[in-house]
Amino acid sequence: MREKTVFYTLLLLLAVILPFIYHDLDLVLRAVLMACAVLGLQLLMSYGGQISLGNAAFMGLGAYISGVLSVKFGLPSLLTIFVAVAVTALIALIVGYPLLRLKGYYLALGTLAFGLSVTSLISTLYTWTGGPAGLIGIPDIGWGDFEITNRAIYYYIAVAMFAIFFWYSSNLMKSRVGRALLTLKSSENTAEAMGIRTAKVKLQFFVLSAVFAAFSGAVMGHYLGIIVPSQFNVIISIELLIAMLLGGEAILIGSLVGSLLWFFISDFTHSVAIPRMFMLGLIMIVLILFVEHGVSQAFIKVYNRIKTGITGKSPEKRIVQGGETNDIS
């Protein structure tokens, strides 16, 4: 427990001082926003066992609904963000009810089809969304004459969002609902025999993942000032999945670690002119072959071995999803 407190305190301290010591704050800001969406996907897939290849569509819905309400109707962006999240949650509820009756590959294909449909719809609604050219002139976050234009403030908003989502997710997984989700993943038949309403639990987490993604997309849209359909297509859904696996699907903080790593890798590939899709495929192969449980779990294993060597005592272990052990997450 003491180690966890120290770890998260240092992480928070680093997040606070980062704008003063790192030059490319834009990259970190977008990575933290991505981490919010990855965290929702992690709850749904890693802890719930429900495959989703359409979560970028929820980011797009959040971004476009908030953007359209701000640009076309002149509503304050601080209001439109929450309206967009609420509408996205309702869409997730409607779509998730039939989709979550599917399992395995069929569920993956269903969510993939949903993602493709949303991107296609956004591209065809020229009058409202600007079509493939995108929606421009999206105002900064604000209300009336007050607007947030400082990049550092946007960064702190993103950090605060992730911290709130992380705290909520961590406590949720320790609750009765979280334990029900883990039981459901282990065996849906066992969960039903225990009286768990599996359809309801799956739908709750599907909607929750959509809410996290919608917040991420909406804030990103107002920060960038312009959004295009390609920012939320199926490739982005795969990138969310890669970030989750890269950081470690069995540990919640892995969503942040994976997102940061993915953005740094993407920035590097851009600087040396390596094709993005080539790097995406290469990372997937490396993850599958060599980093089965992600960078976070690999770090924890190394940390535990060093600690054992110094103290001569094995660290207290607890079981997490995937059968791995850790004492930091």
Automatic annotation (TrEMBL):
Pfam families: BPD_transp_2
Alphabetically ordered keywords of this record: Cell membrane, Membrane, Transmembrane, Transmembrane helix
Alphabetized PANTHER family for the sequence: HIGH-AFFINITY BRANCHED-CHAIN AMINO ACID TRANSPORT PROTEIN BRAE (PTHR30482:SF10), HIGH-AFFINITY BRANCHED-CHAIN AMINO ACID TRANSPORT SYSTEM PERMEASE (PTHR30482)
Keyword Cell membrane assigned: yes
Membrane protein topology class: Multi-pass membrane protein
Protein biosynthesis found in the keyword field: no
Main location group: membrane
Record's subcellular location: Cell membrane
A single Gene Ontology CC term: plasma membrane
Molecular function GO labels: branched-chain amino acid transmembrane transporter activity
Name this protein carries in UniProt: Branched-chain amino acid ABC transporter permease
InterPro entries cross-referenced by the UniProt entry: ABC_transp_permease, LivM-like
UniProt cross-references to CDD domains, sorted A to Z: TM_PBP1_LivM_like
Spans through the membrane: 5-22, 28-44, 56-75, 81-100, 107-128, 152-169, 205-228, 240-265, 277-295
